[in-house]
Amino acid sequence: NIQGSSTSGNTISVASGHVLQAPGHVLQTLQVKSEASATTTSGTFVTTPLSLAITPSSTSNKILITTTFVMGFSTSDQTPSFTLYRGSTNLSGAGATAFTTNGSSGGDMNSTDQFRVRQAAITYLDSPNTTSATTYAVYMKTTGGQAARFNINRNGDSGAVHTAVMILQEIAQ
Predict the structure, then answer these.
(1) What predicted TM-score, i.e. pTM, was given to this entire model?
(2) Which residues, other chains included, contact 164 with Cβ-Cβ below 8 Å and sequence gap of 6+?
(3) DSSP classification of residue 114
(4) Closest CA to 50 of 166, 170, 161
């Protein structure tokens, strides 16, 4: 039974050694913004500027990861892919690209698209099962050969800079 005292108004006091559980509530929110850009010609995942650590307060709690960023291309034959990592673990599993943001340039882009950007976002609910500091990061890769350059936070011509955002929220369970 939860009961505030008549002198405390709407304040609920939790006795020492006890915990008030509120499943589904946001316990903490962290955010990072970055205007740093990253470029890759790699067909394997490489890091981006989007990285943030959070320390969950309970092993049963979940972490909601939300990211938004822009991407640009240097050629018109690329397929960019993104994934989330928790530490060294690819959350889409064993090199897969379940979080692929298909900004595929094949078929619907032309040579002038290197000056354009496309919006991308990833949202994922993770169960890290830890109370240790845990780092989440966005990784990227591209296809299209060594001549294909792919950028995050810039257009394909490395021109205008954009801001990427990553938000981590601990959700009580």
Answers:
(1) 0.76
(2) 33, 34, 35, 48, 49, 50, 67, 68, 69, 70, 152, 153
(3) G
(4) 166
**Nearest C-alpha neighbor of 149 from the set 72, 61, 50, 35:** 72
What pLDDT digit, counting tens, does each position of 128-150 carry? 999 999 999 988 877 655 444 55
Report pLDDT digits (tens) over 73-100.
655 556 667 788 999 998 886 545 545 5
Share of the chain above pLDDT 90, in %: 30
Token pair of 107 as six digits? 């078929």
Can you spell out the DSSP letters for 8-70? STT-----TT-----TT-EEEEEEEEE---EEE--SS-EEEEEEEEE--SSTT-EEEEEEEEE
Strands 118-126 and 38-40: unpaired
Q: Among residues 71, 74, 82, which one has the least CA distance to residue 153?
A: 71
